[in-house]
Each structure stands twice: as C-alpha cells, then as structure tokens.
C-alpha cells in the first residue's frame, strides 16, 4: 500500500483511501487484510496518515479509524470504518470492472 501525506491524486480515476492513525492496532490488522483482499484488483490503494494531515478528517468526514473510502474521480462510492465488511466494496469494484 502506498502511503501518502496528501496529494490531489485522489481526484483522478479510481482510488481507495485507507485512513489510519498512529498506534492503532485495528488499523494495522485491517491494513494487512485490505492488502490481502484487494491484492488482485487493478486499483490504487493509498494510505493517509491522519496525524500528518489532520485537516483531511473534515475534508472527507473521517471521524474514526481505520476508514476506507472508495473514490472515483473524487466522488465517494463506498465508505466503511472500523472492522471492515468487504462485501459492499467488492460488489462495487466488480461492477466497475476492477
């Protein structure tokens, strides 16, 4: 998973943003599961460290972590937080051909 401080890259194409916090045990576990579940997908997966860019909490409405956001051209398609249910995310990715 690519870790980013922040860039406008999330506005282009389809990207999955993984919002995490420092010293978050659940974040570490869900990061590994996310990478494993999505390993065969043609998808940009970017980790956002909320400690480094706290302003993104408001920008994306992220109030807990971990949080996954699937964006297509900057538009939110799927949001999940905490212990992720990958079912809705995978159905959306299948529908998009990813």
UniProtKB/TrEMBL annotation:
Domain of life: Bacteria
Domain Thioredoxin as annotated: residue spans: 13-91
CDD domains membership: TRX_family
Pfam families: Thioredoxin
Protein name, UniProt field: Thioredoxin family protein
Species of the source: Peptococcus simiae
